Amino acid sequence: MRIAFDGTVLHGRKSGVGYYCEELLKAMLAANHNDQFVVFSHQRLGMDFSPANGNLKFADSAHFPVRAFYLHLMLPKVLDAIGPDVCHYTNFLAPVSEQRPYVVTIHDMGIEVLRRAHPLTKRAYTRRLIPYVARKARLIITNSEYSKWEIVRHLGVPEDRIRVTPLAASPEFAPVTVQPGNPYFLYVGNLEPRKNLERLIEAFARIPVKEHKLVIAGNRWYHGGAAEQKARSLGLNGRVKFLGYVPRADLPGLFSGATALVYPSLLEGFGLPIVEAMACGTPVITSNNSSMREVANEAAVLVDPRNVREMTEAMVRITEDQSLRQELSAKGLKRAAEFSWKETARLTLEAYQEALEMPPHSPPRRGGEVRSAERFRRSDHPVCAFAPLGASTPPLRGGEYAAVCAAIHKTVEYARLFEYPLTPSELRERLFDVEIDEVSFERIYDSLGLKPDEHLLALRAEREKISETAILDVQRHLRTLASMPFVRMIAFSGSTAHRNMTSLEDVDLFMIVEDGKVWAVFLSAIVWAKIKGLRKRLCMNYVISDQALPLLETDLFTAQQVASLKPIYGKDVYDRFIAANPFAQRRFPNFESRRHRDMYAEIKKGRRKSIFEHVLRLGAVQIFERFARLFLKRYLMSKRTPASELQLDRRRLKLHLHSHKPAILDKF
Known about the structure:
Elements: E1 2-6, H1 16-31, E2 36-40, E3 56-58, H2 67-82, E4 86-89, E5 102-105, H3 110-113, H4 120-136, E6 139-142, H5 145-155, E7 162-164, E8 184-188, H6 197-205, E9 213-217, H7 226-233, E10 240-244, H8 251-257, E11 260-263, H9 272-279, E12 284-287, H10 290-296, E13 301-303, H11 308-320, H12 322-336, H13 341-357, H14 372-378, H15 398-417, H16 424-429, H17 438-448, H18 454-482, E14 487-492, H19 494-497, E15 507-513, H20 518-531, E16 538-545, H21 556-564, E17 566-569, H22 571-580, H23 582-587, H24 593-597, H25 607-616, H26 620-638, E18 645-648, E19 652-656, H27 661-667
Parallel strand pairs: 1-2, 1-4, 2-3, 4-5, 5-6, 6-7, 8-9, 8-11, 9-10, 11-12, 12-13, 15-16
Antiparallel strand pairs: 14-15, 14-17, 16-19, 18-19
Helix pairs in contact: 1-13, 6-7, 6-11, 9-12, 15-17, 20-26
């Protein structure tokens, strides 16, 4: 078999993808003496192979500075000259005209999940091309189970056409004896937004003991200068050291001398520095998300990469606890040994053979031809509903499996009360009482054979349009509401938060205001809404004091309401509110508040608001507060019905005139 191998990332200063290609190619050459590899690239390659590799050739190709142009304009002619049986495109993309059998490596779906972390030109180009390349490929190779499921979710590629080939540390990564010096934490990788270096630097600045330094080793990439700017702004010039690109031969010593590798990336397809550090016996602090949790397993300290305090605490623990460092070092060495390039090569060679024997796929359908049930599989858009679980469910396998299945059943039935279908990611996040990672959930979910309910699919799509229209219509008015004195947080709640509105009226709002101003703010907002003709549009049905954040009710219905809030103003106060109500996290263990806080752009606080608040605090507001409470309390009590749920105390104002809560709690 003749294999054309994409070497377009093998030139110059290589990053993770470049080392993946180099180590994979070396391992395949060592394991396979029957097949011939022809490496093509648009630039001169920086690789050194021994002459014994007679089954390796380099394609003749003129220098071409832009990889994208080379792939689509020049490469087809190069491949005609090579005459390969199968091609391996190692970095997401392939020529659009490619008709030969090929496999493509898609390392992660960061271009979809973290769009703003990539340059606009790259987003515009790759987001359109990757789905086409993926659907034409005979097989897709990726480096972790996490990335596999993201590819299924975003690209709609069947699971059986994806092969997971984990990466490994090269043999030179091993513990090295280094001369004692100043202690340091280490980061290795490109300098780019996805790597979360600004939060890392902020977390490092908060460490109380100042003897440590932070060493950052890697190439500048998109917005790469932001990390250095952050260090300067915090006055850390002497404590944060930027080494730039470090040759691979120097990395084992750099790892071995570090107190710990801190790798708080927002998303990774694998996270090669984690395994390299472990192979050197270096403790690792890394993110609890994407593939990093999967790769690190139990051999690292996992933190929320968006939580600066957690990162600081992890670094302090590592410095103070010698037994923890020793434990992580031992576990890391064992974990790193579980990965090998030999195994990666074996799995990749098997994929080549499979691709060669597979029939060509039918051309990918256009977006408009994708059925609604399939759209649910391809994306995180809310387009899937579930029929009730029944006889099609397979026998339960073990206690954990049974618990997850029961939780899925309960969660689906709860959503059906509101005629609200859920996507898989929504279903996992709202799963009652059971904590489960994404990969395990996907496997159990797939085994259940849940069927789409086409009626509810159409209903949710219709309600989403209504909700989006309603939100757009009141957007500028919400900015005015946020600018009112003493308003500290505004969030969409109820059907608005779920985008499940049945009419353009009743945009549900949850508000937090300064202590002692609850009734004054509520009355002011009602009068303003009445004047603007918005009284039926804006439903301010829950207003609380910023000194009364813990809610009095901790039942399932309230927990679900808390977990569904979507803040649009005062996101720092939202974070405090979520922290003050941990019962919601206990009822919904997979709930991630950061997804909700990042859903809408935040309304900014104006300077005039602070000045106006200062004037009002001189006395008038206290009189108005007492008047508002006296007047409104009588009025609201007169509107009370047996179905109402009211809370009218000094710090909490809850107005659910037609509450669903009693009926729902009867069932759950």
